[in-house]
Amino acid sequence: MKNSNNNHGGTRYSRREFLKLSGMFAAGAMLGSCGSSLPYSIPDPDEHRHVIIIGSGFGGAISACRLTQAGISVTMLEKGQRFPIKPNSDTFSPYIYPDGRSTWLRDSTVVPIGPPLPINKYAGVLEGHFFPGLRVLTGSCYGGGSIVYGGLLVKPPQFLFDQVFAGTIPYNELETYYQRAADVLNISVVPDDIFQTASFTHFRVMEEQCAAANLKTVRIKSASDWDIVRKEINGTIPPSAIHGEAIYGVNSGAKRSLDMNYLLQAENTGLLEVKTLHQVKDIGIDDDGRYLVQVQKISVQGDILHEKVYSCDYLFLAGGSIGTSTLLVKAKEKCLLPKLNDYIGKGWGNNGNVEILRSGLNQPTGEWQGGPPASAIEDYNNPIAPIFIEHPQFPLGIDKLGQLYIGIGIETYSLLYFGIGINPTQGKFIYDNSTDSVTLSWPQDNNQQKRITDALMYTGQKLDEVNGGYLSLLLAYPKSYLDNAVYHPLGGAIMGKACDYYGRVNNYKRLYVNDSALIPGSTAGANPSFTVAAIAERNIENIIAHDF
Q: SS3 helix, strand, coil % of the chain, rounded to 5?
């Protein structure tokens, strides 16, 4: 807050600030008081834009693509940096011996499996958000989660979708938008010639063992360039996807991330202005109804180089569940957007993520377990809870030491399983005035996560009884570090409560959420990316038709 000293030791406000404060307090009296002791004021804007999108993941990329194709100029703010694919296959960090490119501004990794390792602090691709009892992993780079996800595009079955989305979006209505996203991402199942190679041995073993245990398997569609995968297999280019790269990006470019399709299409219109390494601190609204976006320009080491404030006519929040919810909760509690309702920050869930590792199998699973993930188990008749179980790669080996290529894989006789169920438990985001930060409260009591874990354990034990092997404790380092991992954060500004069913934020015109924050904690036993993409396509079509 701007202030000047006077002889009475108080705070003196300008007429503009006084009027702004008066309006905020009046709004607070009508809608509930703001959380902070005094409202915070964003400085006057330095520049104006017509449309600003915060974030470049699925929601942001799709919004930017469709807006620019409609002839609307867009400025996109992304706190991470671009990682264009290099011809020498050295864009992203190695998996086994990671460097700073792996992790967002930390001196150790936020690894999905195993102990954290020391690295140089750098604006890398994978961000760890550490909350009480939770470790949430998200993408922080141009392309967002599409850089660090497995590339899987899974559509949930209707009977599970209706459990989560009943009364919000009809399942059949989304079909057009699922297909629209599938066409842009060019998704497909793994071709048989690739599936039969040594790098996909673990998938074949997984399917054989499931058949023996009378479990149904399905092939998963992914956003993969199979011609590039073939080049890896043939040795034309260095191995990347076939050696299990995914969580830090795929160096060969075999993963069709958003910078290769939606974002590229938007840039090709000439109407998308992209500002990377621009970290949004706060959002608000001025006296004239224009939105204010306070931004910190940072270096790749995370140093703040300067701050700037943009104003805009339309503001789209697409920073993911964590990013979008954080900005909205801060804006509500600091009276920057005092009319936000009490559903802001609520309805968060972990999409029912659980993992197990089966080890000691009686047949080889491959010295290199390649990807992308190609098969999954539909265990919807599980007696504990219906569950969708993917089989990610579990690669252990050394590709490179420094600039020296080693290429030594390790046979583990193990298979990794990633289960997705429906956990109705919901958390909420809470603002801490003393640190100007937002944390996430996740119930430890009455949490139904154990039910999904038990369902996955039941399936794993069934596989062991028929095929041999045992459920391994290898992943428990410590066990709580694994159990609290969240790969699919959802919610915080859910549709029908904080927003309408197209992402319009309640009580504010021209302010939108179009990302995973809209989802009520679960995408119904499936990876979120496909459903988030379909909903984003649906929302932006409606917004362009009615709001511009």
A: 30, 25, 45
| Centroid of chain to Cα 317 | 14
Q: If we measure between CA atoms, which residue out of 100, 531, 512 comes closest to residue 299?
A: 100
Residues shown for the chain: 548
The span from the CA of 286 to the CA of 76, in Å, is 20
- Give yes or no for a contact between 408 and 401, defined as CB atoms under 8 angstroms apart: no
Asked if the peptide bond before residue 157 counts as cis, ω within 30 degrees of 0, the response is: no
CA dist 58 and 186 (Å) reads 15
- What are 361's two structure tokens? 């199998």
Out of 488, 537, 541, 546, which one is annotated catalytic? 488
3-state DSSP assignment of residue 204: helix
Average pLDDT, the chain: 90
202 in active site = no
Of 78, 355, 367, 390, the catalytic one is: 390
Residue 302 CA to residue 286 CA, distance in Å, equals 29
Locate the DSSP E strands across 397-436: 397-401, 404-409, 415-420, 427-432
* Angle at CA of residue 118, ends 112 and 123, nearest 5°: 75
Dig out the tokens for 191 from the structure.
């071709």
* Beta strand extents in 35-185 (DSSP E only): 47-54, 74-78, 126-131, 134-139
Q: Is the pTM of the predicted complex or chain greater than 0.70? A: yes
Q: CB of 349 within 8 A of CB of 364?
A: no
Return the number of other C-beta atoms located less than 10 Å from residue 351's C-beta.
26
**Residues 4, 2: Cα–Cα separation, whole Å:** 7
**32-36, 48-52, 273-277, 304-308, range with the lowest pLDDT:** 32-36
Q: Is 546 helix (H, G, I), strand (E, B) or coil?
A: helix
Reply yes or no on whether 488 is catalytic: yes
What domains appear along the chain, each with residue ranges and CATH number?
Answer: 15-80+260-348+492-547 (3.50.50.60)
Q: Mind listing the pLDDT tens digit for each residue in 294-340? A: 999 999 999 999 999 999 999 999 999 999 999 999 999 999 999 99
